[in-house]
Amino acid sequence: MFSPYTLESRSSVRRLTVGRWSYLWAGLFGPLYVLSKGGGWYALQALALSVGLTLLLVALVAATSYIAAFQQVVLVCIAVPIVLVFQAVKTVNILKTSYRRRGWRVRMAD
After folding, report:
1. CA torsion, ordered 82, 84, 85, 90, to nearest 10 deg
2. Cα 87 to Cα 81: distance, rounded to the nearest angstrom
3. DSSP letter at 10?
4. 65 contacts 20 by C-beta, under 8 angstroms
5. How does the average pLDDT of the chain come out, rounded?
6. Pairing of strands 105-108, 15-18
7. C-alpha to C-alpha distance for 19 and 85, rounded to whole angstroms
8. Are 31 and 47 in contact (CB under 8 A)?
9. Per-residue pLDDT reduced to its tens digit, 33-47
10. Interior CA angle at 20 toward 39 and 77, to 5°?
């Protein structure tokens, strides 16, 4: 699920590694992670993803406010890690796409 990648520039000898820790930072700081790795305008796409997922969590809390408090806590405690994993995987995919479009090679790391 959290596959490591190596991004290699074709024009120079630059190399960027996206490892397992990258997924943690991408899940927690989505658009800032893309921006810090040089994703450029793709950070706006990651921002839209983060905003959408935040609104989804807010809607979940609002929708579960009609059930028992314990059930609401359980649902939110299950939903938050799922949303963070989803954001991490999608944010790394956005970063890979930004580098691919600039002509970099994206390979699975060994």
Report:
1. 120
2. 10
3. S
4. no
5. 91
6. unpaired
7. 15
8. yes
9. 999 988 789 999 999
10. 95
The torsion of the CA quartet 52, 58, 63, 64, rounded to 10 degrees, works out to 130
C-beta of residue 23 within 8 angstroms of C-beta of residue 87:
no
45: left (phi over 0), alpha (psi -120 to 50) or beta: alpha
Q: How far apart are CA 60 and CA 71, in angstroms?
A: 12
Q: Which residues are CB-neighbours of 86 under 8 A, at least 6 positions away?
A: 53
Residue 55 has pLDDT above 90, yes or no: yes
Sign of the torsion angle spanned by Cα atoms 43, 32, 77, 54: negative
Strands 15-18 and 5-8: antiparallel
User: Could you tell me the pTM of the whole model?
Assistant: 0.88
Q: Which residue has the tokens 């939110």?
A: 76
Residue with tokens 């820790």: 21
* Tokens matching residue 80: 């938050």
